[in-house]
Amino acid sequence: MPTSVLLNNVEHHDLRIITRRGAELGDQLMSAVTFPSEFRDVQACYPIVFRKTTDGLGFEPIALFGLEEGHNLFLSGDRWQAPYIPMMVERQPFMIGTSGGELMVNVDLDHPRVSRSEGEPVFKPHGGHSEFLEHANSLLLAIHQGLQELPGFLQALLENELLESFALDVELNDGSQNRLIGFYTINEDRLQALSGEAIARLHQAGYLQAIYLVIASLSNFRMLIDRKNASLA
């Protein structure tokens, strides 16, 4: 469990964050949550699919990095082999907190990126925010705003019955058969059958572009499979 505390320049004056990539730093991830305002950048690198939330009552969009839990096909040693890293990964070890309706910055002190001896300083010597922390603040604000728009987007998908489950069957170069299940995508037939009024409502709400970005992102499954095959060589 994360040890999340409110970041402050007294207790955490010497805090540093390790920014290199690596499995030991928490990067061995199959996926990360994303949101419509990030879809344009995400779809250039990764498939965007949907999964049920942990409570089983809703859905959330995710960027897929691998075909099995705990395996990131874009991670090679200390390098992340894609030009864009989703915000929910890049933000680590910081999290959004709230106090009386005000947004605060929390930090997970147990996260492997947290250090007192190496990495980027969080605070300046006299207590001011470092450039690194300012960047983290802007990242957390973008995440907060992105997550705020997510319920309306998901509700529109459900109201128009645009989500459907899918299974991806993959035969790898070593002859093994693999099946990716438990995820959802856009039902393109249903999308094409929507009335002009329904399409107009999606467009006016700013959701139509996000829907097409999700569909476009599915071509990245080919790259995931290629990366998986390369890892077997």
The stretches of 5 or more residues where confidence is low (pLDDT under 50) are none
Q: Which strand order do you get reading across the main beta sheet?
A: 1-9-8
Provide the succession of SSEs.
Answer: EEEHEEEEHEEEEHEEHHHH
N-to-C CA distance: 36 Å
Task: Please give the count of helices.
Answer: 7
- Classify the helix fraction into a percent range: 25-40%
Structural class: alpha+beta
Strand composition percent: 25-35%
- Please give the number of β-strands: 13
Q: Can you tell me the overall shape?
A: globular
**What's the main sheet like?**
3 strands, antiparallel
Determine Rg (CA atoms, Å): 20 Å
The pLDDT mean sits at 94
- The number of distinct structural domains comes to 1
Walkthrough of the structure:
The chain is an alpha+beta fold. It has one domain (4-232). 32% of the residues lie in helices and 25% in strands. The protein has 7 helices and 13 strands. The strands form 5 sheets. A 3-stranded antiparallel beta sheet has the order 1-9-8, covered by helices on one side. β6 (75-76) and β7 (79-80) form a beta hairpin.
In brief:
With 233 residues, the chain is α+β, with helices and mostly antiparallel strands. The chain has seven helices and 13 strands. The strands form five sheets. A three-stranded antiparallel β-sheet has the order 1-9-8, with helices on one face. Strands 10-2-11 form a three-stranded antiparallel β-sheet, with no helix packed on it. Strands 3-5-4 form a three-stranded antiparallel β-sheet.
